[in-house]
Amino acid sequence: MKISKKVKFMLPIAVATVMATSASIPFIRNVNAEITGTSGIENFSLPKVTGPYNINANVGSDPKELDFAWFTQSSGKTQIKISRTSNMNGTEFPTSADIQDAEQTVVKATQSINQSETALTDIDGKATPANNGDAVYNGKKTAGAPTGEYSNKAKVKGLDPDTQYSYSVSDGQGNWSPVYTITTLPTDKVTFAAFGDPQIGAFDNSKGTAKSNATGGHKNLNDDKTGWNNMLKLVTQNKDLNFLFSMGDQINDYNYLVQPSNSSDGQWYQYRDFFNPDSTVNYMQNMPLAAFCGNHDHQMGEYYGYHYNQPNISKLGATQYGNDGDYWFTAGPVLFLVLNANNYGTADHDQFIAEAIKANPNVKWKVATWHQSAYSEANHNTKNELDDPVLTIRNTWTKMMDKYNIDVVLQGHDHYYTRTAQMLNGSAVDPNTGAPETLKNSSNASVPGTTNPNATYAKKEYPDSVTNPKGTVYFTLDSGTGSKYYDFNKGNNDTIGGSADHSFSVVGWQGYVPSYSYVSFTDDTFTIKTYAANDYTIGNQSLIDSYTITKK
Ligand SMILES: [Fe+2]
User: Fold this and answer.
1) CA of 476 to the centre of ligand 1 (A)
2) Region (Disordered) spans which residues (predicted)?
């Protein structure tokens, strides 16, 4: 994340209400900021695009479904055509191909939002240091300007799992996309590549005074696009890969569809580059995607939601900007609970998780994922302000993970790789007994996967493989593109003050090179291997960390 200087924040106005209900989870309702300014819709003019663009296929509710989304600049009856690839004659669809009408909506965006800051009270109604000064991008929509675009969405159901399909989408004016191929997810196991914030367009942060400026930071939008393209090139060399999982902040710009200061940058261009970093390879069209809303994605209101077609999307966890609440999907033996942390109250999410688990009682594994990481070690480590509700989430959402026996949590936002111990009731615990444990430093090893002299790395004494562990393990993933990195927080990065807590961390790494996590679930194992990209070939990637959970 970053806070643009262009966004003005007003003094805190507390509007949160607290509802104390069961057990020890602080239930916080209605985390709503009040708008005190007016939104300025800047003049913008988009490049003319003929035919469908920003085409992507989201994971479906289960492996028999894929949920497609694409943009057009023309209205009309847009459609998707899809067939088993084995029935295709080259790029020609058979007469048996399924043709489905899309749902089309007018795309709107809210730009340059002035918001107030929300101060949350805790469960006791007090503004504690852990909660004081929170804000959330959850304001009322003050302006929704049509962008001249249309969002088209089609959920295709009844597909065969683990099967390759060919598809093409139309713009309603007779123009069809190229034919892409995509494989549905399997039912018995699942493997995916997870990235921390791609944040296409964040390069300008590297021009500042942050240390990352000294690490070869990206200099323009094209550098971010190239970083993303290289990462996709690398991860798709994993032949067992079933889908791509992005931890939010897919794009960077807070305020503008098209920047007044740079007519070739802004969210519009950043989405274009996220979905099409290389139009000759079409990585994003050929692989199912799971993505969710980071603070940057959220800052232009409803513009985010038009880009994705997410399964089982709920009003629970939504913000006032639109229907971008929580969603769930199943793949292999796993239930994925995708939570919108831009609304970081607990009541909605708690209800959502309960309902999703009730709808999927037989899953072997439960994974929760959201953007603003609970346990992070860099820039957001001790902050709890504006768009960084890290401490509130640490103090509240983790209790939901305990309550629902979530196995694994995947997060972004901090641009610094962190693997925690098994966490229970807010503490690192012995995986076997669940008793609180003070982690000890391991021997000083060299920093894996980098030669950068500013790199930081710490490993504590803790097993890399556990069986039937107590508690939940949390991962925060570093940048998947290299668009922005954060430095280890030694306790002096925080304008609020206070020491940085790293008691939860087993492995922390900042190599200032792009990284990703390769995650596999079978019925009885979870394995995550996090790699630093070197030359973007799988043979030369470097293992940063590995962790395995076995369930017997
Ligand atoms: Fe973020």
Assistant:
1) 11
2) 429-463
